[in-house]
Design brief:
This protein is α+β, with helices and mostly antiparallel strands and 184 residues long. The protein contains three helices and five strands. The protein has a five-stranded mixed β-barrel with strand order 1-2-3-5-4.
Length: 184
């Protein structure tokens, strides 16, 4: 029974300390890890939003649920034997950890979207010149994608000047340079 109390206390203590310290000391440390530099992302290095099954958050959920379930089962006469309560508690802890894993990944997947434009889909789209493009020089265009307005440096496809306010079509993108041609 002391193991169950220790697991419950350790899990709850870890959760409380994590909540307090992440509030005051959390945030991006500037490191460029695949997980975005967040400790709760565990060993998942894909760079996609989410939580690994072996993250501290999910593991502490297992430990806490194991301790709580073990305490409850040890008080029930039919399951008071450690040979019954320990395996059932381990399964219950794994189930709770799995639920936490699914819940966090669901939340991260739906909240970690980007408002950045998808550059590959811009070829063929119309835009307008907001800073004139000089011959063989760079100007600036504005385009709308996904309901948001973006600007980008642009060059004329054939090196000819394009006046400000003219409608253009994006023909290709090389790095951060957009190549455009005037619409007739």
């Amino acid at each position: 029974m002391i193991i169950y109390v220790a697991c419950l206390a350790l899990g709850l203590l870890f959760t409380i300390i994590s909540a307090i310290t992440s509030h005051f000391f959390g945030g991006d440390d500037g490191g460029d890890l695949g997980t975005g530099g967040h400790a709760e992302a565990g060993y998942d290095h894909s760079g996609l939003p989410g939580v690994s099954f072996f993250s501290p958050t999910v593991l502490s959920c297992f430990v806490t649920a194991f301790g709580a379930c073990g305490l409850i089962l040890s008080k029930i006469e039919a399951t008071s034997s450690v040979w019954i309560s320990a395996p059932v508690s381990a399964v219950a802890g794994a189930a709770m950890a799995f639920v936490a894993f699914l819940l966090f990944n669901f939340m991260f997947k739906h909240t970690q979207s980007s408002s950045e434009s998808r550059v590959a889909t811009l070829v063929g789209q119309s835009a307008s010149v907001i800073t004139p493009i000089p011959p063989d020089g760079v100007g600036e265009i504005a385009y709308v994608q996904g309901g948001a307005r973006y600007t980008a440096p642009a060059r004329a496809e054939h090196g000819k000047a394009v006046a400000g306010g003219k409608p253009v079509r994006i023909t290709r993108i090389v790095g951060t340079q957009f190549y455009v041609e005037p619409l007739d």
